[in-house]
Every structure is written in structure tokens, then in C-alpha cells.
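Notes on consecutive records. When two proteins share a document, each keeps its own sequence and its own C-alpha cell line. Never mix them. Below: protein one.
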Amino acid sequence: FEGSWPHDLVLRDVRIMHPDRPASLLASVDEIQLGVAWASAALGGSPVEEVRVVRPHLELAWNANGALDLPSPLAEGDGEDTGGRPRVKVEGLSIHLMDTPFLVKPDVQIELPDFRVSLVPDGSDDWLYQFIASVDDEHLGNLGAFGRFSATEFDLELSRKDFLVTSAMKEILDPDVRSLIDLFKIAGGIQLVGELKSVPEAEEGTQGT
């Protein structure tokens, strides 16, 4: 922990444990910088105006059933307004993939130093944040994403320029998948649009949607 009046606050070597298994590491962050609005805080406003996350590291593992063992990205919430939300920036990303059941090798470490995400409060009653993300990496290529999310819904638009399968990409793929890709020539661009929602459980005698 670093920081003092009137400077911003800096948290180093932050560790986030799995909510269902407190002894298991879910993510770690090299550094979190908190931009503190001291004047606003003194007047009863939001104390944090910006959060900068530097090189988060995710531990992603698949269980014996082939399902990704990760808490839901749709947080359980009561929908109450959390006014005064800060801006959030993420710089760099490290991902450790373990026991993957498809596509890539069962144990892969991916470093993305040029990964960038910016989140800005949406300002509407329906959404919490808008975000834009980008990464230019030899394994993943040139990726861009834009979206928004609330406590129960997530919209995402993902695009990739120059969809070429490079030798660096093939290094992290499962050997069978790599052999299959070698049989084809894949090129061009790609754009994906998706939506994820949390659906309430149906009441007794009714059909959920």
C-alpha cells in the first residue's frame, strides 16, 4: 500500500481469492492505482474518480466435466443505483489456462502487455458501464471490443482484423486442432456480436424464458 494526502493511492501485489474456495487464487494484480477526489470526498461525494489496474493475472481452470470453473460475470445484485462510479482502466493482462478441454494445450501461459480496457460509467438507468478494449498480440492478433453491462446483462461486440493464423497462434493450440487448421487457409476479418442475460427463475406453474 502506498499513498498519502493529497496523492493518489497505490495498491501493489493484490490477490483475489475464489469466492467458493477461499484458499484458491482466482486473480492477482501487480498494481491498482486509485485516483482519489479528496475535495469531493470532503463534501460527501464519491471519493474515487478513477481506478487503474496494471497487469492483472487470471487463473482459469476447467473442471472434470469440461466446464470453466469461474464465478458468473453477472453479479447478483438488487439493481440499486451505485452513483459515483469511478472510471476504470486496465493495462496489460496475464492469463494462465489450465486443463482446457478443447482448442488450446492443457496448460498455457499467455502474456498480453499491450492489452488495454477502459470502462466509463454509462450514465443511464439501464447500464452500469460502457467499455472499450483492444489488444495487438502475436497469439491473438489485433482484437477490438466494445460493450456495456449491468448487474444482470452483458452486451459485447468483438472484432478482429486480418484473421490470419500465425505460427505463434499455433504454438498454443491443441496438436489435433493445429493439424486440422493446417489443412485449410484461413484469412479475412471477423466480427461477433453477443448478449448475455441473467434470467430469473420461473415461478411455480409458469415457464421461464
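Protein two starts on the next line and is unrelated to protein one.
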Amino acid sequence: DDFELIGSLASGEFCLYVSPQQTGIETFEDLIEYSKDNDVLIGSQPPGSAVHALVTYVFGEAGVNYSTVISDGANKDIISVVNGDITVSVGYPNVGRQYVQEGTIIPILTFSGEPCVDFEDLEVPTAKSQGIDLSFRANNFVMARKGADTEALKAMFNSFVKWQETDSFKELADNTKYVPYNQNGEDLKVEIEKAAALFQVIYDKYYKQ
């Protein structure tokens, strides 16, 4: 209630990446079986981050025993998966796309509510398809302090949305694999409230002492 949400311009879904060459894992079911006889190391952001909470929830609900290796970025984690230093990494599709195209890693699960189709000839299954009640996307959004003059920010937001119709933007978006995710403040608030409720569930079940 201390801020006014202007809108969201980008949204990303997290995927789990593994290396079949290093582990033989090709599906989330394979990962569950692998964990019964092998140590599972997952690259993760520190406790308190969204990634750590989501990993805790997904693997806790799946009954997978694992250890987290705290790192400072998904790019390094993916390289660690390729090298066999860790079992699983978590990251956006654009972080893993090059390695997926090279065939060194594959995405086996998305935390989004819909299958991920950001990889050529691949449809990444959802956590829900594994019986895990999860639907989450990360958002980058514009907001202002409550009571501030938001007209200028709204004008900037609308100008950016309008720019998306131009050829120059489409070329830039194609080169950077940027997919617009335009969402007004009201819809964004609903999504944030859903995410807050999800993380409260995760906290109560897996973190609360």
C-alpha cells in the first residue's frame, strides 16, 4: 500500500536445467529416481531469494533429497551443470538457450503455470504436471511512491508500449530474444498478491521454525 504500480514490461519463467551427458537425467521423473541413489546438488541464490524458495518448494513437494550450492548467478550455475560440478541449475530460458541448442543441457521443468515453449522443438513441462501446485513468473515492473505524481511514469510506460509497434523495436527485440509482457498496474497487483500468497505457503511449510 506504500507504492502505486504503474505496469509490467517484462516477465520471465524459471526452468530447471540438467546435463544428460553428465547424469543420464532427461526428465523430472529421472531426477527423482536419480536422487534415490545419488547426491543432488542444485545451484541456487541464497535463502530469502525467490529462486531458493521455489527450489525448496518444488523439491520438497517432490520428495527429493538435495543440497544447494549458493552461487552468484544462473550463468555460472549452467556452466557448472555442463561440467558436472552440480546436478541442476535454475534460470530463465534466455540464460540456457545457447547451451540447449548446443545439446549440452536440457530444460526439464518450468515453474510457470503453462508449458515453456521458448526453446526450438521443445515444450518444457510444468511443475503442475508433476502434481506440484505451482504457478510463478518473475516480473520486472515500474512503480512509484504512493501519493507521487505518477502521470509522467504512466506516459513513459505507454510510450514504451507504443514503441513496441515499430520496426526498430521488433528488430531489437528479436536480436535480444525479448518478449514484451505489457501489464497494467491493476492486473500486476493481482499477480503480485498471488505470488505473495504462494511464498507465504512456502515459508509456513519449509522455513518457519
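For the record: The longest helix spans residues 185-207.
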